[in-house]
Amino acid sequence: MDNLILQIQQDNEHAFKQLYQAYYIRVVTFITGIIKKHDIAEDLAQDVFVNLWINRKTLDATRSLQNYIFVSSRNAAINYLKKEMVFSSEPLEAQADVSTGNMVEDTFFAKEIALLIEMVVSEMPEQRQRIYRMNREQGLSNEEIADRLGISKRSVENQVSLALKEIREAIAAYLIFWLCMLS
């Protein structure tokens, strides 16, 4: 990926096209998950990549390009939602969850965490991803998963444990990022 950043910094349009093709659908899906408007998400995703190309000379080859893309995507979605809130005819109180008193930001934060988890899970090795989804999304026990996949219960336990560790690490990094941003 570092090589790809260097190629893009050197105005290599083919390298940029590879990056675009690799991430565009994921960025649209990520933004749609936040703003719930697919057509707007497509426009925002286009903006993310246009801005990446415009700022290609300032990309840091030591940083994760994937993180850059998803932070830019999150920021684009947040900015869109902020504009929507400003121009919304709904009073702020109507945007709050009356039962708990939580504001839209709390809901947004929860959605961000859910999307982060989905991103982490989708990047896991296929077997770990399958086991995690069977356990957490389908509610199957470790024994049931082991039977269905023809592997040992211990293997299932190990894969679930590794999946949860990856998720915890990603959430911790995300929270540290936000704490640094707030400082």
From TrEMBL:
Domain of life: Bacteria
Keywords assigned by UniProt, alphabetized: Sigma factor, Transcription, Transcription regulation
TM segment ranges: none
Domain RNA polymerase sigma-70 region: 19-84
One of the protein's GO biological processes: DNA-templated transcription initiation
InterPro entries assigned: RNA_pol_sigma-70-like, RNA_pol_sigma-70_dom, RNA_pol_sigma70_bacteroid, RNA_pol_sigma70_r2, RNA_pol_sigma70_r4_t2, RNA_pol_sigma_r2, RNA_pol_sigma_r3/r4-like, WH-like_DNA-bd_sf
Domain named RNA polymerase sigma factor 70 region 4 type: residues: 116-166
GO molecular function: DNA binding; sigma factor activity
Similarity section: Belongs to the sigma-70 factor family. ECF subfamily.
Protein name according to UniProt: RNA polymerase sigma-70 factor
Lineage: Bacteria, Pseudomonadati, Bacteroidota, Bacteroidia, Bacteroidales
